[in-house]
Specification:
With 436 residues, this protein is α/β, with parallel strands linked by helices. The protein folds into two domains: 8-65 and 331-435, Aspartate Aminotransferase, domain 1, CATH 3.90.1150; 68-329, Aspartate Aminotransferase, domain 2. It is 38% helix and 16% strand. The strands form three sheets. A seven-stranded mixed β-sheet has the order 4-10-9-8-7-5-6, sandwiched between helices. Strands 1-2-3-13 form a four-stranded mixed β-sheet. Strands 11-12-15-14 form a four-stranded antiparallel β-sheet. Strand 1 (36-38) and strand 2 (41-43) form a beta hairpin. The chain starts with 7 loop residues before the first helix and ends with a helix. The structure holds pyridoxal-5'-phosphate (PLP).
Length: 436
């Protein structure tokens, strides 16, 4: 007899009986079921399809199930599915070479990790060992990952070079719509945020600061494009004080902003870049650090006290090579720029003109936020209940959204088509009308 087909309720029951979910109180969860996908579309077991304008966690830059990437993973699986990091492996070498081909000049090595959090862990470790300093300055309104204690809990020698007594300092970054600096222009916001960072460095003691760690474009925090001069000013402050600049491109990199790296749009050269997500669209978990010549030279003679069993995993490496090749062959980065410039820019502006609940639209490429407010003047955010209603209206109309606080992030795959954008804009329009 044929087994009964799997239904959404089977999958939810199985999940709720066995799976512990991230960032959630477990009891009231009712997760959406996804069974399959292709390009910018996903579907469940009950015949419903959705436009995926979340790119999952803003990672499926190449879309779902890209055939050449799937094929490369299968080929690598037949050849060798795993290999220890100490060995040399052809696919891993090619993956590093492909990434470096798009990195700024003067960066010459890749350290592979399992994802974005451990990429940042290792970038921080490199900056600390390179400078002999310990503090890291980063921003409020940022996300850099969910790790931190494993190496300090470790009992052997590997703990010792990683035990830092002084840790992390936070500053406000530029965010003109909700300025912490009473700024009225992007220029003022940029200058005042830099002055705040300058004073923080001085008062923390420049000799104690190893690194400034910034998302080039803060993503989950609201797609906060840096105003003119900000990143360049941070670089100048870092140079003045011998501080390493780490740019986190985990979410913003690999086509998301319409450039290979978000930093390509600015005149800034970091010492370290962290990546994950879009490098292979998360088909196999992977991340890593792009390392400058100076920092990699620090470890020419000296042992680098960091590593991971799956660093440079061959299935991940194969998916990176195939993904970057497909990006080049199919002009996927150019598509993201074109969609942003010619479709999302006018389309989201028209949406904002029709819906006063949209307080601000910001972004570029396929990386946009709609900030929803109760009042255009006070800019008071809409309530979580309002966002819950919006989310339900979008899902009912077949669009899988990315919701963060009082914002809808419009973050489709970089392969999204103008026709899909048009359908999505209609759905956002209808859903916003339905809740008001
Ligand atoms: N950095 C940024 C900018 C991110 O957006 C994320 C994840 O959303 C991370 C780091 C952490 O990456 P992962 O979840 O792969 O550890």
């Amino acid at each position: 007899a044929l087994a009964a087909p799997i239904t959404n309720s089977d999958v939810i029951a199985l999940d709720r009986a066995n799976v512990f979910h991230s960032w959630s109180a477990q009891k009231a969860l009712n997760p959406m079921v996804i069974a399959g996908g292709s390009g910018s579309t996903v579907w469940d077991h009950d015949g419903r399809t959705y436009l995926d304008f979340s790119s999952q966690l803003v990672n499926t830059n190449i879309g779902h199930q890209h055939p050449r990437v799937i094929e490369a993973i299968k080929e690598q699986a037949d050849a060798l599915v795993t290999v220890a990091p100490a060995h040399a492996n052809h696919t891993r070498g090619l993956a590093a070479e492909r990434i470096l081909a798009h990195a700024p000049a003067g960066m010459n090595k890749i350290f592979f990790t399992n994802g974005g959090a451990d990429a940042n862990e290792n970038a921080i470790r490199m900056a600390r060992l390179h400078t002999g300093r310990d503090k890291v300055i980063s921003r409020y309104r940022s996300y850099h990952g969910n790790t931190g204690a494993a190496i300090v809990a470790t009992g052997d020698w590997r703990r010792i070079p990683n035990e830092y007594s002084r840790g992390h300092v936070h500053v406000f970054g530029p965010y003109l719509y909700r300025s912490e600096f009473w700024a009225e222009t992007p220029q003022q916001e940029s200058e005042r945020a830099l002055q705040h960072l300058r004073r923080t460095i001085e008062l923390e003691g420049p000799q104690s600061v190893a690194a400034v760690l910034l998302e080039t474009v803060p993503g989950t925090a609201g797609i906060l494009l840096p105003p003119p001069g900000y990143l360049e000013g941070v670089r100048a402050l870092c140079d003045q004080h011998g501080i390493m600049l780490i740019l986190d491109e985990v979410m913003a990199g690999f086509g998301r902003t319409g450039d290979w790296f978000a930093l390509d749009a600015y005149n800034v050269k970091p010492d370290l870049i962290t990546f994950a997500k879009g490098v292979n669209s998360g088909y196999v978990p992977v991340g890593g650090v792009i390392i400058s010549e100076d920092i990699s030279a620090t470890f020419d003679e000296r042992v680098f006290p960091g590593g991971l069993t799956y660093s440079g995993h061959p299935l991940a490496a194969a998916s990176i090579v195939a993904s970057i090749d497909a990006f080049e062959e199919d002009n996927i980065v150019e598509n993201a720029a074109h969609i942003g410039r010619d479709h999302l820019t006018p389309g989201l502006a028209a949406l904002a003109a029709r819906h006063p609940v949209i307080g601000e639209v910001r972004g570029r490429g396929v990386f946009w936020a709609l900030e929803l407010v109760q009042d255009q003047q006070t800019r008071q955010p809409v309530t979580p209940a309002f966002m819950g209603r919006i989310k339900a209206e979008l899902l009912n109309r077949g669009l899988l959204p990315f919701i963060a606080d009082n914002r809808i992030h419009v973050v489709p795959p970089a392969v999204v088509t103008p026709e899909e954008v048009r359908r999505a804009l209609d759905i956002y329009d209808e859903a916003l009308s339905a809740v008001n």
